[in-house]
Amino acid sequence: MPIKSYRPITFGRRGASVDSFEDVTKKAPEKSLLVHKKRIDGRNSQGKITVRHRGGGAKRMVRVVDFMRSRYDIPAKVAAIEYDPGRGGRLALLNYVDGVKSYILAPANLKVGETIVSSQNKIESKNGNRMPLKHVPIGLMVHDIELYVGSGGKMVRGAGNGAQLMAIEGDMAQLKLPSGEYRMVSKECAATIGVVSNPDHWLVRLGKAGRMRHKGFRPRVRGKVMNPVDHPHGGGEGKNAIGLKHPKTPWGKPALGVKTRKHKKQSSKFIVKRRK
């Protein structure tokens, strides 16, 4: 969707942009599909901070999104396209013919009034329909992909993202992911046709610190302006380089560009080509 800019009459507006929300057709969410979720603000069950720089932020309700779509062969009509404060893409509100309502990730160009369906059999390769990868035509873009059969969509869920089905080889399907990685998943895993909505989401510029606070992120202090006792980058008079061969985390571990994936991870055998 288009990005909206304002006249730079204040410092906060200069350089900032917002989503235009032109594709959103319903402002109020469906109450039956909302849940309260206690915010943990980066703390574990003991109350200790395990993720820094989290806290505050605007209050928001969690939308219950159906990543399984296990109501097979039951047509559903798209009742509305809605905004979700917890993600970049839009949500589509579905009304099934038997009266059940649910949210799904809205594919790009999905219109209100269209009818879509989820099935375990071969169905029309229509935007928003969901079926196993073995029934999807080669070369088509898909999203909300299962990693394991019946686990629900786990991959390719970000705004504007889509994976291309490259080939079916034996029991596996080869996908080209948005990162450039080529990966094998079972051809029985389900995926939704199309790409995720709101592809211009990455163009939004926050423009001021306050909008980051609304998202629940607290300020971060650079390590190089700390004292040596507080950070490996700290110390020195004035503006100094970090004085190390490689950047470090506050706890002395390598940072910035270091591979963190475990070498013997079981799923590594499914990666055909690593991302660039």
Report on the architecture of this protein.
- The mean pLDDT is 95.
- A hairpin with a 6-residue loop joins strand 11 (145-146) and strand 12.
- It is globular and about 70 Å long.
- The chain is 2% helix and 24% strand.
- It has a 7-stranded antiparallel β-sheet with strand order 9-16-10-13-14-15-17, with no helix packed on it. Strands 7-6-5-8 form a 4-stranded antiparallel β-sheet, with no helix packed on it. Strands 1-2 form a two-stranded antiparallel ribbon.
- It has 276 residues and is an all-beta fold.
- The chain has 2 domains: 3-202, Nucleic acid-binding proteins (OB fold (Dihydrolipoamide Acetyltransferase, E2P)); 222-267, Ribosomal protein L2, domain 3.
- The protein is built from 1 helix and 17 strands.
Broad CATH class of the largest domain: Mainly Beta
Low-confidence stretches: none
The CATH architecture classification of the largest domain is Beta Barrel
Taken from the alpha-carbon principal axes, the silhouette is: globular
Helices and strands, in N-to-C order?
EEEEEEEEEEEEEEEEHE
Topology of helices and strands:
Elements: E1 3-5, E2 17-19, E3 34-35, E4 62-63, E5 76-82, E6 91-96, E7 101-105, E8 115-116, E9 130-132, E10 141-143, E11 145-146, E12 153-155, E13 163-169, E14 172-176, E15 182-186, E16 190-193, H1 209-214, E17 271-273
